[in-house]
Design brief:
The longest helix is centred in the C-terminal third of the chain and has 18 residues, at 252-269. Strands 1, 2, 3, 4, 5, 6, 7, 8 and 9 form a nine-stranded mixed beta sheet that branches. This protein has helices at 18-26, 43-50, 67-77, 96-106, 138-143, 156-161, 173-183, 210-223, 225-229, 234-248, 252-269; strands at residues 5-11, 34-40, 56-61, 82-85, 91-92, 112-121, 124-129, 152-155, 188-199. The chain is α/β, with parallel strands linked by helices and 273 residues long. It has eleven helices and nine strands. Strand 6 (112-121) and strand 7 form a beta hairpin.
Length: 273
């Protein structure tokens, strides 16, 4: 008997995109046991919109609490063995869940697995990412964020063991979560197929804001400072990538300042890309 799956979806003003997301779940070759949608402080209008989907379970926040809290409360309410996270504007290919279940059956020592990702917007696909480590290590995670939550399938037991997502980190919560999982001995496997599509529309997505990226990355660095310091060169490499990424998501003088800081870090510490 296959383990059951609960899908957890944080919802924040995603009415324009949600039906496509929902349909991608209903088209899965293996159906989840339940779909839990967390209305993250969007009020009665969002509840009325979501009420048309009669087979979803809704958790309603009276105020906006952020994606980490939404994911956590959805996961805690889930009744399945496995949790799949999906954002309310992203899409799964039809065989995403089945492929992941097959993977976890074949490699039972993994507590989670994630898939390749294609980013897209209203004009079509942008980039595809399928070149990631098969079995994540701390070094892999200190170099860069590897796991995108909408691509992740994970046991509820391992979520509980690491106390879910850190609700105090507003931008790099997924990166922090992956680090803590691997630090505590849970293994995350990778499926090199782009079975998850992540929307890039700058419609309020926190990753579109360079300043938010900078703040979130600095929070993560502070939290895991001792781990970074144990591995030579990782702190400067992480800071270089942080400022370059923030620069790419900023405009005007802020963009120039972030890029300049990144180049200075690279020059001083001889950072290799």
């Amino acid at each position: 008997m296959l383990p059951s799956i609960s899908v957890v979806i944080p919802f924040y003003h995603a009415e324009a995109f949600f039906d496509e997301t929902y349909q991608s779940i209903k088209q899965q070759t293996i159906q989840p046991q339940e779909i839990i949608v967390v209305n993250d402080g969007c009020g009665a209008k969002a509840l009325e919109f979501l009420s048309q989907y009669t087979d979803i379970k809704i958790i309603d926040f009276t105020e906006n609490k952020g994606v980490s809290t939404a994911r956590n409360e959805g996961a805690k309410a889930a009744t399945s063995d496995l949790i799949a996270f999906l954002d309310a504007d992203d899409i799964w290919l039809p065989n995403k869940l089945e492929t992941q279940l097959t993977f976890l059956e074949e490699y039972p020592h993994f507590s989670a697995c994630h898939t390749g990702v294609t980013t897209f917007n209203d004009k079509g696909d942008i980039s595809t990412f399928v070149n990631k480590p098969f079995d994540l290590t701390i070094i892999d995670l200190l170099e860069s964020m590897q796991v995108t939550p909408p691509s992740l399938l994970i046991t509820k037991a391992s979520l509980e063991a690491v106390d879910f997502f850190d609700q105090d980190i507003r931008c790099s919560e997924d990166h922090d979560f992956s680090i803590r999982l691997v630090q505590q001995g849970f293994r995350i496997g990778f499926i090199d197929q782009a079975l998850t599509k992540v929307r890039r529309m700058d419609h309020g997505n926190i990753s579109s804001n360079g300043r938010s990226i900078l703040i979130g990355h600095c929070q993560l660095l502070k939290k895991h400072w001792h781990t970074f310091r144990q591995h030579k060169g990782m702190t400067s490499k992480y800071l270089y990538k942080t400022f370059m990424t923030a620069g790419g998501k900023s405009t005007g003088i802020e963009r120039k300042l972030y890029y300049l800081t990144g180049h200075i870090i690279k020059l001083i510490f001889s950072v290799k890309e």
